[in-house]
UniProtKB/TrEMBL annotation:
Organism: Pseudidiomarina homiensis
Residues annotated as domain Sulfotransferase: 31-228
Record's signal peptide: none
GO MF annotations in UniProt: sulfotransferase activity
InterPro entries registered for this protein in UniProt: P-loop_NTPase, Sulfotransferase_dom
Pfam families linked to this entry: Sulfotransfer_1
Organism superkingdom: Bacteria
Record's protein name: Sulfotransferase domain-containing protein
Length: 268
């Protein structure tokens, strides 16, 4: 019922989003997109940047209830963003004061299309060590379902980390934990790719650096998105830097084996 109600609300807003997209100012700064792999700390980074005086995500540090799963599901299914989805961003750029901030992290795979629509968009691409991501993945059903339901999605699939060369290994040899390592590895390579291709639009950040050097990291982000830095900062949970310690020896071994397989078969 909730899904139906949400769909009705979306349809009612379609004309507004379409008009916003058609009449958008291509020279306007933004949006600012926080991207990366699931469970890499994109929520945390969004809350950090949300403290900037001239930046707003509108939803107070949570994902867009309208678009997050719509865009996520389209991305893993290898579908391009629709005019409706692009129009949502054009609409939100007008709705908020300052820069609109979005934390739909699968937009890492939509960088080219978003830059075509919004040439002055900025992307904050977050990296995090594979062990911490893997531990968090185990606790989050929404992210885990992508690997559990991998047979439902087209392949090859960059989002999942499935290439023509590793498809057989992915299907027949990997545990769900190891499939998630492939997803992580593919996302890390994608971050490096878009950062190299679009250096003026993509800034690479590391979760560990945010935790250890919050003030200087926020200052660097402020320079990158051309807006004043915050006067107060998010209280970072230092214990999140040690999640790998909660993995078992068997899980750590599985992760190492998956990384070795990724390096040997991902690209042939």
């Amino acid at each position: 019922m909730r899904r139906i109600a949400r769909r009705i609300r979306q349809l009612l807003k379609y004309p507004l989003y379409l008009w916003a997209y058609v009449t958008r100012d291509r020279q306007q700064n933004g949006p600012v997109f926080v991207v990366g792999t699931g469970r890499s700390g994109t929520h945390m980074l969004c809350r950090c940047v949300n403290k900037f005086p001239q930046v707003s995500d509108y939803y107070g540090g949570v994902e867009s209830p309208e678009m997050f799963w719509s865009i996520s599901n389209a991305t893993v299914a290898q579908k391009q963003l629709s005019i409706f989805q692009l129009g949502y961003y054009a609409y939100m750029m007008r709705k908020v004061d300052g820069l609109f901030l979005d934390q739909t992290h699968p937009n890492l795979w939509n960088v080219e299309q978003l830059l075509a629509a919004f040439p002055k968009a900025k992307f904050l691409a977050l990296k995090r060590n594979v062990q911490s991501v893997s531990y968090s993945m185990k606790k989050h059903g929404g992210v885990l379902k992508w690997v559990k339901n991998h047979t439902h999605y087209p392949k090859p699939n960059g989002f999942l980390g499935v290439t023509p060369q590793n498809a057989k290994v992915y299907q027949e040899q990997l545990s769900d934990l190891q499939r998630d390592v492939f997803r992580w590895a593919s996302h890390m390579e994608r971050i490096d790719e878009v950062a190299k291709r679009f250096p003026d639009n993509v800034m690479v950040l590391h979760y560990e650096d945010v935790g250890e050097s919050m003030k200087s990291t926020m200052a660097a982000i402020a320079d990158f998105i051309a807006t004043p830095p915050p006067s107060e900062f998010l209280a970072f949970k230092k214990e999140s830097l040690h999640k790998r310690d909660a993995l078992t020896a068997e899980e750590l071994a599985q992760i190492d084996d998956a990384l070795a397989l990724w390096g040997s078969v991902a690209k042939g």
